[in-house]
Amino acid sequence: MMRHLAATAVALVAAGTAALAAAGPASAANYPYDGQGPAATGCANTQHVVQSAPFTNSSGAYGYLKLVYSTACATTWAEVDSDFPYVPSERGAGSATIHRTQDGKEYSCTIPSGKTTCHTAMVYDNGLTSYAVGDLDDGFTWRTLRTAAY
């Protein structure tokens, strides 16, 4: 009888371990405004650039990575701005990602052809922190930047 109970206990522990492994890591939380656009929600009406970093080459700045915060919505988003429009296979390719530090939730954008900017969807940031990562190509050099967390 004891042997049967021990075998059953081992089987239950193994099954529980397999179930946990199949579940994978915990997913990011879903807060108000996560994944929504700043303009569509009105959050852009109270936007403030809280971090800004220039993309530079030997001629100076050719674009900026920005971490933007909305005071009304308590949200952040990332924006990348280029001094010239994106021309595929030439210059201006760029992207930005907003990353919430506590749970890893993130959203990205890519500058569309013929445009000079993109901004990500928002992450809720009240009592939390987030940062922006971006890259931009000036036709000669590909630069990647990261802002401080806010």
What do you see in this structure?
By secondary structure, the protein is of the alpha+beta class. The chain has a single domain (35-146), classed as Immunoglobulin-like (Sandwich). Helices cover 17% and strands 40% of the residues. The chain is built from two helices and nine strands; from the N terminus they run H-H-E-E-E-E-E-E-E-E-E. Strands 1, 2, 3, 6 and 7 form a five-stranded antiparallel sheet that branches. A four-stranded antiparallel sheet has the order 5-4-8-9, with no helix packed on it. A hairpin with a 4-residue loop joins strand 8 (130-137) and strand 9 (142-146). The model is unreliable at 1-25 (pLDDT under 50).
Describe the structure in brief.
With 150 residues, this protein is an alpha+beta fold.
The end-to-end distance, rounded to whole angstroms, is 60 Å
**Mass-distribution shape:** elongated
Rounded to an integer in angstroms, the radius of gyration calculated over CA atoms is: 22 Å
- By helix and strand content, what is the structural category? alpha+beta
Could you spell the SSE succession in H and E letters?
Answer: HHEEEEEEEEE
What is the fold named in CATH at topology level? Immunoglobulin-like
Low-confidence stretches: 1-25
Largest sheet: 5 strands, antiparallel
Query: How much beta, percentage-wise?
Result: 35-45%
Number of extended strands: 9
**Helicity level:** 10-25%
CATH architecture: Sandwich
CATH classification, class level: Mainly Beta
Number of helices: 2
